[in-house]
Amino acid sequence: MSTPHNNAKLGDFAKTVIMPGDPYRSEYIAKKFLSDAKLVNDVRGIKGYTGYYNGKQVSVMAHGMGMPSMAIYAHELYNFYGVENIIRVGSCGAVSEKLQLRDIVLAKPSVTGSNISRFFETKDPNYSYPSSLLVDKVLETAKEENKTIHQGGVLCSDLFYEEKEECKLWKEKGVIATEMETFILYLIAEKFNKNAVALLTVADFLFEKVDELTAEERQNSFDEMIEIALKTAIKL
Questions:
Q1: How many CB atoms lie within 10 A of CB 39?
Q2: What one-character DSSP code corresponds to residue 165?
Q3: Cis bond before residue 130 (omega within 30° of 0)
Q4: CA-angle at 1, arms to 39 and 7, nearest 5°
Q5: Which pLDDT value is given to residue 89?
Q6: Average pLDDT over residues 186-214
Q7: Which of 16, 107, 152, 227 could form a disulfide with 176 if both were Cys (CB 3.0 to 4.6 A apart)?
Q8: Are 126 and 120 in contact (CB under 8 A)?
Q9: What confidence tier does 163 reach under pLDDT thresholds 50, 70, 90?
Q10: 146 C-beta neighbours (distance < 10 Å), count
Q11: Closest alpha carbon to 184 in 172, 176, 192
């Protein structure tokens, strides 16, 4: 089988998929961390691989930028390919001054000012939540690895360059970081009764003038977050 966005065959994807936004990062994860990794999708350059991590089959595939792109790939993986768990591994901008560059954030909850949720049955159009199963497993893994995970509200914005004004409003409600994909991932996981969680590495700051990660660093320097995701995946 295939879809307009995925030329993989049924059974090509593992039950758990690690999802970065950047196709180059999916390639990086597959080549650095997986053994016997095989390319199973390359439509539109959104590279998907399946291989083994510590003997357990795991897949990794990019999801692109923004909620519409994430919505396509999450829907197809859950609904057509039998995927049970998606762990997003992405970057975020820090809103809270308590966060530092390269800190790892677990988005709980994801919040948005977008009206995209009007197409879903949801109790609150501005909030979506990760699966408790995956949250528990991620925190368990982080504790075993002696790594710190910052849990908190993360704004999922439709904007990138104009998001500061939106972030000011949400910061007052306790939001600690911002990104562009997680809200819809959580909604789609709930729609199909599947599991999802988002781990995000702080790559820049919204309100402070400090160093930020380059595009190359975003692609290649998130190993700590990636290893937590992979070590969580093999528990599922």
A1: 15
A2: H
A3: no
A4: 35
A5: 98
A6: 86
A7: 152
A8: no
A9: low
A10: 6
A11: 192
Distance of CA 56 to the CA centre of its chain: 20
The pLDDT of residue 13 is: 97
Q: In Å, how far from its chain's centre is CA 45?
A: 18
| C-alpha span between 19 and 87 (Å, rounded) | 6
Q: How buried is 77 (Cβ within 10 angstroms: 0-12 exposed, 13-18 middle, 19+ buried)?
A: buried
> 13 Cβ partners below 8 Å, 6+ apart?
40, 48, 50, 59, 61, 77, 81, 82, 83
Token pair listed for 29: 């994860």
Greatest Cα pair distance in the chain: 49
Identity of residue 102 = R
Determine which one of 12, 36, 204, 211 is catalytic: 204
Active-site residue, 42 included: no
Q: Which two tokens stand for residue 220?
A: 């290649």
Top-confidence range, 4-8, 22-26, 122-126: 22-26
